[in-house]
TrEMBL record:
Protein name according to UniProt: Ubiquinone biosynthesis O-methyltransferase
Top-rank taxon, per record: Bacteria
Transmembrane segment boundaries: none
Role this protein plays: O-methyltransferase that catalyzes the 2 O-methylation steps in the ubiquinone biosynthetic pathway.
Pathway the protein acts in: Cofactor biosynthesis; ubiquinone biosynthesis
Biased composition (Polar residues): 12-22
HAMAP family, A to Z: UbiG (MF_00472)
InterPro entries from the UniProt entry: SAM-dependent_MTases_sf (IPR029063), UbiG_MeTrfase (IPR010233)
Single GO MF descriptor: 3-demethylubiquinol 3-O-methyltransferase activity
């Protein structure tokens, strides 16, 4: 994180927000900014996100019934999930700190004729402005890029209505996850650019569940997203040893 010797101006610009917001890693945002143009190309380095998108959309839709639900997608990137949920009838807001992915998301939604509100704002800040306004909060493949994931999880819990649903996904931290998600995906199969994921920032399901509970969320389900490199197919199952999704609910 860059040091900030300057005084905060009363109305920070977007660039100053990025620099001064403590829970944003500018290096991580830069990585995604640099690649953003390829976001909707299913044969690009975003292929894994394209491949898992139908699985996670179905997982979420089965649990919340997306039509007419008010949803906020935290760390939405180029909008694969946000736009997918909007196409299924949800009223979606997507937030991210990357300017380029948001620009790509906006253009894609406009061309597709799908209404999505995209905003460049930190999760903690929108949580102050829109507490308790959402039926569903999604935060997928983002927590492992943030300095303090527990703070984002608290923001998600603040944004959701009592009785509402929250979904997280990330990568487990263990030797197998290191071999598959970093060595396999970044160095052997080259599905992702080298340096996409840092081992120390990966998150165990027990840690995620603990932070969710501390934020007032009850974990309902945890599902594994498993990739078979031979068939090149992802499936949802009970094996959470590498990629996984978590569904939590806020108490009434
Ligand atoms: N959730 C999307 C994109 C995942 S890629 C999907 O699963 O399809 C990770 C995204 O998190 C990138 O777009 C990156 O810009 C964003 N990100 C990383 N740190 C962030 C932060 N502190 N606040 C908001 N977004 C962040």
């Amino acid at each position: 994180m860059p040091s900030s010797g300057k005084k905060k101006s009363p109305e920070p610009t977007v660039t100053e927000q990025q620099t001064h917001t403590p829970n944003v890693d500018a290096g991580e945002i830069a990585k995604f900014n640099a690649l953003a143009e390829q976001w909707w190309d299913p044969n690009s380095q975003f292929r894994p996100l394209h491949d898992i998108n139908p699985l996670r959309l179905n997982y979420i839709d089965e649990r919340v019934s997306l039509p007419s639900k008010k949803v906020i997608d935290i760390g939405c990137g180029g909008g694969l999930l946000s736009e997918g949920m909007a196409r299924r009838g949800a009223e979606v807001t997507g937030i991210d700190m990357g300017e380029a992915p948001l620009a790509v998301a906006r253009i894609h939604a406009e061309h597709a004729g799908v209404a999505v509100e995209y905003l460049q704002i930190p999760a903690e800040q929108i949580a102050e402005q829109r507490a308790g306004q959402y039926d569903v909060v999604t935060c997928l493949e983002m927590l492992e890029h943030v300095p303090d994931p527990s703070s984002v999880i608290r923001a998600c819990a603040t944004l959701v209505k009592p009785g509402g649903q929250v979904f997280f996904s990330t990568i487990n931290r263990n030797p197998k996850a290191f071999m598959f998600a970093i060595v396999g995906a970044e160095y052997v199969l080259r599905l992702l650019p080298r340096g996409t994921h840092e081992y120390a920032k990966l998150i165990k399901p027990s840690e995620l569940a603990g932070w969710a509970r501390d934020a007032g969320l009850d974990v309902q389900d945890t599902a594994g997203m498993v990739y078979n490199p031979l068939t090149q197919v992802y499936k949802l199952n009970r094996d959470v040893s590498v990629n996984y999704l978590m569904h939590a609910r806020k108490g009434d």
